[in-house]
């Protein structure tokens, strides 16, 4: 039982806090945060332009439990969902105890295993809703109703406990009312001497439940409970059976699903037949399953109430109990074959669990990701509009930004009033962010007045999509800054052109922590395109890129609509990362037409002159992961790239510090490779960026530092990268940590080094090589394509290297187009092999490596025949090249052949 509980607990905790809360979970959060009076009343206030008060249609018991738990554990996603996990885990021993009540251990273990593996229970265990609590109460009710010995009646205590459990079920979910007729039939089947006591208990319960009965009936008749479509009786019954084995989110496994469902139904029928032999128990269990389904079906003729299987969740424990009895009966009839049936059912359940856990929770909206993204990019001059009033709790929970937030209805409610308010906004609006789950067709409907107003008044800038199954969350961004804004005295004139598309006449920057606003003044060129993009980077003096931003160039105002000879202004906002040190920075700008780079005058990109920034070193809410005795807190250590990691390459690592003293004692830092007892130095240098070392830090400042951690080529296996700090005298400073091995450096990153893929077979290129370089690598084969080209064309040189022994130093391959090796080349294709993606110091002896270089033929190259030479060089000079006979090539350049440059 312990192993079974651990397995189920691990499944339910896996990524429990990762997915965003969705709409229904937001209601749970709202009621858990409300006062006790509002919780019991079910009062919810939606944040429209005018607050809208409404009533939640669920009873208060689950929310009272959740409120008490939140007071102890907080309201994180993990904490909010944990009560559902706990209730789901308690169902397992309860299912086992229910089977034991029939004195059938095999049925008890079958019920416990089915409950632990249930995809339906796993789904709702990871949701902050009341359904696993309802299932737990339903399972407890079944346990209390079963006779302790064959043919005996219920005692007074168990009868009272059963009625209290039913009362708790109704206070958890109103659909538990559907059990009352089935329990009435069950009571009529009890011994006659117990009937007065049972009727008295039912009478007391009915009196206690009159207020909730009225509320439930009123919401059902008025249509405030659910508004689903009509469902036939067989469809509801089939849905309950299917969900109990395949879960709520059912992957398409074709015939496997049908086969599992047929086996499941057969097992249920066998279980019911065998339960009939035990004091007519099978008939009563059948009533508990079928009568609530029949009631929902009949009620649908007045107003539909059934939407998904969660509205009959209390029936699922009865289904698992019947199936556990069916497994027991089959095991007595078929013996060994019954285990195959049992394992196929459990295997199907675990297959569906794997599908659920591996698919990133597609059935829940990703509102958290959308709002967090807006938190990072919106400025105080922006306006955020969320188009769903029901998402009020999630907006209050996730949105921490500075832009003003408005909520409106999905069907156009409040949009005209919001437009009127925005038109009279007291300050200029820079951007409006529209968060919606509607499709483009929905947004184009006449009642979507805000969407049409945004298209007329603003300029569509970009769109971000956050996928989920129910509805994709879309964030539409509209720019309200004027494209005709005039240059100011701060504008720096430029005259750089980007191809024939446009010219940059000037730019200016306006630092405003935590944003940097850059204005670009464009002038129309002779060419036009509807798909122009800017790539903008903020770079410091050392070349470190601190911010990257990709933005379209006025997608709703393309250059072909720009006025002739007049500058068009575009504003770009760069969010400065926390920890950006003060210093001198520049903007690096590149332009694209779809995926093709548009070169700037004088190079592939344009770089602005340097300008000073005060940085962004203010405090921010991030708990330290480690504290040093040197007056420093390490707030985060994040690699810029994820695994796999390979020996011979480096890892770009971002460290974020917070100073506790002015200045901190720590001055230097070192990174070590720790593998078992082996400690190996990887890097040693100053603490902090070169422009802002630690001796300039003040208490409370947050400073980010990017370092490149080299991984030597002979490293292998799994290890840790550990960080050590030193004072001015070079003494190592200890970390304030409980574990003694942290005294020898704090583990900032665990690394599992992957092996490089090695090719042992020759690469089939057209021509044979044979030249070798310093007895390290040899040119095995090569190709030149094409062998005839016009000026301005490109020639591709494909090389296949054969490694004789591991190179001890890095090298660069040169590929020259010339007529003799001692002449200056007309075109070059120099570069590290494989574009530097794999250092040659990691090449293995006997390995074959494919390497491609390109030669761009100059436009003014005269027609004629030209030779291509290849070789290697490093800092010491060219590598010696010899032919198969041992003779050295002239200038250590190996001739590959000639190409013809045609006029």
Automatic annotation (TrEMBL):
Residues annotated as transmembrane: 106-124, 130-148, 160-186, 198-217, 254-276, 283-302, 308-330, 337-357
InterPro entries noted in UniProt: LipidA_mod_glycosyltrf_83, RgtA/B/C-like
Protein's cellular compartments: Cell membrane
GO CC annotation, single: plasma membrane
Sorted UniProt keywords: Cell membrane, Glycosyltransferase, Membrane, Transferase, Transmembrane, Transmembrane helix
Glycosyltransferase RgtA/B/C/D-like domain location: 57-208
Membrane topology qualifier: Multi-pass membrane protein
One GO BP: lipopolysaccharide biosynthetic process
Signal sequence, start to end: none
GO molecular function terms listed in the Swiss-Prot or TrEMBL record: pentosyltransferase activity
PANTHER family: MANNOSYLTRANSFERASE YKCB-RELATED, MEMBRANE PROTEIN
Protein name per Swiss-Prot or TrEMBL: Uncharacterized membrane protein
Lineage per the UniProt record: Bacteria, Bacillati, Chloroflexota, Thermoflexia, Thermoflexales
């Amino acid at each position: 039982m312990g192993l079974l509980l651990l397995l189920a607990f691990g499944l339910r905790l896996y990524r429990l806090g990762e997915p965003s809360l969705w709409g229904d979970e937001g209601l749970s959060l709202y009621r858990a945060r409300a006062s006790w009076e509002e919780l019991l009343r079910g009062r919810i206030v939606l944040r429209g332009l005018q607050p809208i008060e409404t009533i939640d249609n669920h009873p208060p018991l689950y929310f009272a439990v959740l409120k008490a738990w939140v007071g102890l554990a907080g309201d994180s996603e993990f904490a909010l969902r944990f009560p559902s996990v706990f209730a789901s885990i308690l169902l397992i021993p309860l299912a086992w105890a229910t089977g034991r009540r029939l004195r059938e251990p095999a049925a008890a273990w079958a019920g416990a295993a089915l409950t632990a593996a249930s995809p339906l229970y796993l789904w709702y265990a990871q949701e902050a809703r009341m359904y696993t609590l309802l299932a737990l109460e339903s399972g407890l009710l079944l346990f209390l109703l079963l006779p302790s010995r064959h043919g005996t009646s219920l005692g007074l205590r168990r009868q009272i406990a059963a009625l209290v459990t039913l009362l708790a079920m109704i206070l958890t979910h109103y659909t538990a009312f559907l059990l009352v007729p089935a329990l009435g039939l069950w009571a009529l089947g009890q011994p006659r001497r117990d009937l007065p006591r049972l009727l008295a208990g039912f009478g007391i319960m009915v009196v206690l439940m009159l207020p909730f009965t009225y509320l439930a009936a009123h919401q059902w008749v008025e249509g405030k409970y659910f508004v689903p479509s009509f469902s036939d009786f067989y469809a509801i019954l089939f849905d309950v059976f299917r969900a109990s084995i395949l879960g709520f989110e059912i992957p398409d496994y074709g015939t496997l699903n049908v086969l599992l469902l047929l086996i499941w139904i057969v097992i249920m029928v066998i279980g019911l037949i065998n339960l009939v032999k035990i004091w007519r128990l099978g008939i009563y269990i059948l009533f508990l399953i079928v009568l609530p389904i029949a009631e929902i079906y009949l009620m649908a003729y007045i107003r539909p109430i059934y939407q998904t299987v969660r509205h009959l969740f209390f029936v699922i424990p009865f289904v698992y109990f019947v199936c556990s009895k069916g497994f027991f009966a089959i095991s007595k009839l078929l013996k060994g074959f019954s285990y195959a049936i049992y394992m196929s059912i459990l295997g199907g359940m675990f297959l569906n669990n794997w599908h659920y856990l591996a698919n990133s929770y597609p059935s829940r909206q990703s509102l958290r990701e959308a709002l967090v993204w807006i938190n990072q990019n919106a400025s105080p001059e922006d306006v955020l509009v969320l188009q769903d009033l029901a998402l009020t709790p999630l907006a209050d929970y996730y949105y921490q930004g500075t832009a003003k937030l408005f909520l409106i209805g999905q069907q156009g409610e409040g949009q005209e009033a919001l437009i009127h308010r925005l038109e009279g906004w007291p300050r200029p609006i820079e951007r409006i962010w529209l968060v919606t789950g509607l499709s483009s067709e929905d947004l184009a409907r006449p009642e979507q007045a805000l969407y049409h107003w945004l298209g007329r008044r603003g300029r569509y800038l970009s769109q971000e999509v956050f996928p989920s199954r129910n509805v994709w969350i879309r964030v539409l961004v509209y720019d309200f800054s004027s494209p005709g804004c005039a240059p100011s005295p701060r504008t720096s004139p430029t005259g750089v052109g980007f191809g024939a598309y446009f010219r940059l006449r000037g730019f200016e920057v306006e630092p405003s922590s935590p944003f940097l606003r850059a204005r670009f003044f464009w002038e129309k060129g002779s060419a036009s395109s509807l798909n122009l993009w800017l790539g903008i980077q903020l770079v410091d003096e050392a070349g470190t890129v601190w911010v990257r931003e990709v933005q379209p160039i006025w997608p709703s105002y393309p250059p072909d609509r720009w006025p002739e000879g007049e500058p068009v202004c575009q504003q770009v906002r760069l969010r400065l990362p926390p920890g950006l040190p003060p210093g001198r920075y520049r903007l690096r700008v590149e332009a694209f037409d779809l995926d093709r780079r548009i070169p700037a005058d004088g190079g592939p990109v344009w770089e602005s002159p340097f300008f000073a920034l005060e940085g962004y070193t203010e405090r921010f809410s991030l708990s330290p992961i480690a504290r040093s005795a040197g007056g420093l807190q390490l707030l985060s250590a994040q690699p810029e790239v994820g695994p796999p990691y390979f020996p011979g390459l480096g890892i770009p690592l971002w460290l974020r510090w917070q100073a506790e003293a002015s200045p901190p004692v720590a001055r230097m830092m070192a990174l070590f490779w720790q593998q078992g007892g082996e400690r190996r130095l990887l890097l040693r240098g100053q603490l902090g960026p070169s422009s802002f070392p630690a001796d300039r830090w003040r208490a409370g400042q947050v400073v980010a530092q990017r370092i490149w951690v080299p991984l030597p080529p002979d490293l292998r296996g799994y290890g840790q990268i550990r960080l050590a700090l030193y004072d001015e005298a070079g003494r190592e400073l200890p970390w304030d940590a409980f574990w003694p091995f942290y005294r020898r450096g704090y583990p900032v990153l665990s690394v599992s080094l992957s092996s490089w893929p090695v090719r042992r077979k020759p690469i089939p290129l057209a021509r044979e090589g044979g030249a070798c370089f310093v007895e390290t690598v040899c040119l095995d084969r090569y190709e030149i394509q094409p062998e005839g080209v016009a000026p301005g064309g490109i020639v591709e040189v494909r090389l296949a290297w054969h490694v004789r022994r591991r190179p001890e130093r890095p090298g660069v391959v040169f590929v020259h187009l010339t007529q003799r090796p001692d002449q200056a080349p007309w075109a070059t294709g120099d570069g590290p092999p494989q574009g530097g993606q794999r250092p040659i110091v990691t090449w293995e002896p006997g390995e074959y490596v494919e390497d491609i270089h390109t030669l761009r033929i100059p436009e003014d190259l005269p027609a004629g025949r030209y030779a291509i030479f290849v070789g290697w060089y490093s800092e010491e000079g060219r590598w010696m090249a010899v032919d198969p006979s041992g003779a050295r090539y002239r200038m250590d350049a190996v001739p590959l052949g000639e190409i013809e440059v045609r006029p």
